[in-house]
Amino acid sequence: MKLAKMPKTTVKKKKRVGRGYGSGKGGHTAGRGQKGQKARSKVGLLFEGTKMRKSLIRRLPMRRGKGKLKSFKKKPVIINVKYLNLLKPGSRVTLESLVKDGLVSKKETEAGAGVKILGDGQLNKKLTVVLPVSQGAKKKIEKAGGKVVDTKKHAKGGQGAKRKKAEEAKKKPLKRRKKKIDAKNKKEKVNVKEVKEAKKKTRKTRKKKAAAKKKKKDE
After folding, report:
1. DSSP string, 36-91
2. Burial of 104 by CB count in 10 Å (0-12 exposed, 13-18 middle, 19+ buried)?
3. pTM of the predicted structure, to 2 decimals
4. CATH code reported for the domain at 77-154
5. Are 27 and 33 in contact (CB under 8 A)?
6. What local confidence, expressed as pLDDT, does residue 134 receive?
7. 72-84: pLDDT as tens digits
């Protein structure tokens, strides 16, 4: 049996920092030395012993300086009309079909904000495009006998559909109110002309009474 492999019979207590000489960790300074910068408080992670203007933060190209006007908006992958000639005539151009035919990689579409078709070059094939398109590209697609489907209208649960639903929801309570008012009017059989005449009469009577009061005061 070796001494190194013998089981431990004693257990040492942990050193209790800052509890005096009996703690096993020096005296009252508790391993922080005597006075100095690190004796009383922690030193910040970004402290380098220099002023701020010479520090690492100022030397790094952060948003405060370099690239502060750079937009973090995702941009679409651009494909020109001339590359659509590689597709079969009469085919439907969607994001999935472009990935399938190898015109766009799946990583590019996931990283960016979809695909947009621009109007550089000529198109000789009839295609139906279900993607965002520039005005020049739209003219060329329609000239070749193709068709551009509006993506906003056909987007399920898109912003256009949400707006329509919101507008319809607003109109519904108004329709209900109108129906209730019409029903009340039918029951009471209110004539608008009669109401107007009655109001005019009341005004005339008020004016006559006011004139009579003035005469009495003058007398």
Report:
1. STTTTSPPPTT--SS-GGGSHHHHS--TTSTTTT---PPPPEEEEGGGGGGSPTT-
2. buried
3. 0.42
4. 3.100.10.10
5. no
6. 92
7. 778 888 999 999 9
Structural domain boundaries of the chain?
77-154, 169-213
How far is it, in rounded angstroms, from Cα 58 to Cα 42?
A: 22
For the four alpha carbons of 46, 49, 51 and 57, in that order, the dihedral sign comes to negative
Whether 151 has a pLDDT exceeding 60, the answer reads yes
Cα pseudo-dihedral 22, 24, 27, 32, rounded to 10: -150
Beta-carbon contacts of 197 under 8 Å, excluding residues fewer than 6 positions away, are none
The pLDDT of residue 155 is 46
Element (H, E) at 80: strand 77-80
- Tell me which residue of 87, 117, 81 sits closest to 102, measured CA to CA: 87
